[in-house]
């Protein structure tokens, strides 16, 4: 973070300020609400409405997710040319159309076309959203706005999943209603983003963007993107692997999983903004390094839980989850600051589009890591993830000096 940003912040200020902050927050919450409403039932949704088997649906989702990755470089360049807001709104409209198509058309071909368009539009949205936040944030408030985007995301996902669990019926008509409701929610999000205050865009020539938009040559950004992707694999592995491990290996009651994720969601929602204010005082490279290292607490708790039982086991898991979640707060905040701060202004879209390739690869790798580990030797999963944390921390701390003061604080100008 730039020195001017630190100076602009008061010691007690936690909530971000600036024009349009409420509308931005409501739009983000509405978007996350729609996603949370759909996400827990996504596989059942696709199977029911496409008429295909689960294995076919899984294959189509994996193939289309990977096929969408090369297009993200183009998406990033479009963001740099026209600005993040139009791309964000267009991606939301496309997403809504995808859900209407899922309800209208069945079969593997329609599923493949729809999920490919959905994958591209979702990645485009994830590229544009933080850049909209940066455009809206007054000087000294960028990290708070980025933190706010995470707060409303976590809150919306949690509320959406809760609502879906209560009202969605496991039937074709129930899933059709889910798809239409999701499409309506996404269109409402697009409308909300459309009325967020506009900010002037800096003038960058198309030639300049075209010549300089080569993020793969920026070793600092590439390092952060790779480390962020590795830590994302860890987070996704926890999300999908921990329930299986807790229920099958530890033989704990099913409510344990819900409680642990409730702790995770509660801490993320309640502490993201105040914790971000504390983290602003430290270089984000260091925050990212030590945030990833705290993931070890949950891995250690899961391994130790196999040797304990009763109250001790439960306390171990809860404590491990709390510390892990605090690390997750640090990782997401520092990664956002670095990934949006390191690129020059005229190339932010191209850089973040490039980063989405790593994000997409992470979402493809994590399920394979989880399924193969849990099917073979379950503790290997947690030892493997522990190795990822240790290596990531060592690499970041070993290369921190290369970033320099400005870059390590997430600041970049518009120079090569």
What is the compact description of this entry?
Its main location: membrane. The chain is an all-alpha fold and 416 residues long.
Distance separating the two termini: 19 Å
Largest sheet, described in full? none
> Any low-confidence stretches, pLDDT <50, length ≥5?
1-12, 203-211, 406-416
The CATH first-level class of the largest domain comes to Mainly Alpha
Number of domain units: 2
CATH architecture of the largest domain: Up-down Bundle
Strand content: under 5%
Tell me the series of helices and strands, N- to C-terminal: HHHHHHHHHHHHHHHHH
Characterization of the model:
Its main location: membrane. The protein is globular. It is mainly alpha-helical and about 425 residues long. About 80% of the residues lie in helices and about 0% in strands. Residues about 1-10, about 205-210 and about 405-415 have low confidence and may be disordered. It has 2 domains: about 20-200, MFS general substrate transporter like domains (Growth Hormone, Chain: A, Up-down Bundle); about 215-410, Growth Hormone, Chain: A, CATH 1.20.1250.20. It contains 17 helices and no strands.
Features:
416 residues, mainly alpha, Growth Hormone, Chain: A, 17 helices, 80% helix, 0% strand, disordered C terminus
Topology:
Layout: H1 3-8, H2 21-38, H3 42-50, H4 54-67, H5 71-82, H6 84-104, H7 108-136, H8 142-167, H9 172-194, H10 206-212, H11 219-249, H12 255-279, H13 284-293, H14 296-305, H15 310-341, H16 348-376, H17 379-408
Helix pairs in contact: 2-8, 2-9, 3-9, 4-7, 5-6, 5-7, 5-16, 6-7, 6-9, 7-8, 7-16, 8-12, 8-15, 11-15, 11-16, 11-17, 12-15, 13-15, 13-17, 14-15, 14-17
């Amino acid at each position: 973070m730039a020195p001017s940003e630190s100076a602009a912040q008061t010691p007690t200020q936690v909530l971000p300020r600036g024009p349009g902050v409420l509308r931005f927050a409501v739009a983000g919450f509405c978007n996350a609400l729609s996603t949370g409403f759909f996400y827990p039932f996504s596989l059942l949704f696709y199977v029911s409405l496409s008429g295909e088997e689960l294995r076919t649906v899984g294959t189509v989702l994996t193939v289309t997710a990977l096929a969408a990755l090369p297009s993200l470089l183009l998406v990033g360049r479009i963001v740099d040319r026209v600005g993040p807001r139009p791309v964000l709104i267009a991606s939301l409209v496309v997403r809504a159309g995808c859900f209407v198509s899922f309800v209208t058309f069945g079969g593997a071909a329609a599923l493949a076309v729809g999920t490919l368009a959905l994958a591209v539009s979702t990645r485009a949205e994830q590229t544009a959203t933080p850049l909209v936040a940066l455009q809206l944030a007054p000087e000294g408030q960028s990290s708070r706005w980025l933190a706010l985007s995470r707060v409303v995301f976590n809150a919306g996902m949690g509320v959406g999943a809760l609502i879906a669990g209560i009202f969605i019926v496991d039937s074709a008509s129930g899933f059709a209603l889910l798809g239409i409701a999701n499409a309506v929610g996404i269109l409402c999000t697009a409308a909300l983003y459309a009325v967020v205050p506009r900010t002037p865009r800096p003038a960058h020539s198309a030639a300049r963007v075209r010549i300089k938009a080569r993020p793969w040559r920026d070793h600092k950004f590439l390092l952060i993107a790779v480390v962020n992707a590795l830590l994302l694999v860890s987070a996704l592995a926890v999300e999908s692997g921990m329930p299986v491990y807790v229920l099958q290996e530890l033989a704990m009651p099913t409510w344990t999983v819900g409680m642990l994720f409730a702790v995770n969601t509660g801490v993320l929602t309640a502490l993201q903004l105040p914790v971000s204010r504390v983290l602003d005082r430290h270089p984000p490279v260091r925050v990212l390094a030590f945030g990833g290292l705290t993931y070890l607490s949950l891995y250690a708790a899961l391994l130790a839980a196999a040797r304990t039982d009763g109250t001790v086991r439960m306390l171990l898991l809860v404590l491990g989850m709390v510390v892990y979640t605090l690390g997750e707060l640090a990782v997401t905040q520092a990664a956002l600051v670095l990934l949006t701060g390191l690129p020059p202004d005229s190339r932010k879209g191209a850089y973040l589009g490039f980063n989405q390739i790593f994000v997409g690869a992470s979402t493809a790798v994590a399920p394979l890591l989880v399924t193969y580990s849990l099917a073979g030797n379950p503790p290997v999963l947690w030892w493997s993830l522990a190795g990822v944390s240790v290596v990531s921390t060592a690499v970041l701390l070993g290369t921190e000096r290369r970033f320099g003061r400005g870059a390590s604080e997430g600041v970049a100008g518009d120079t090569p």
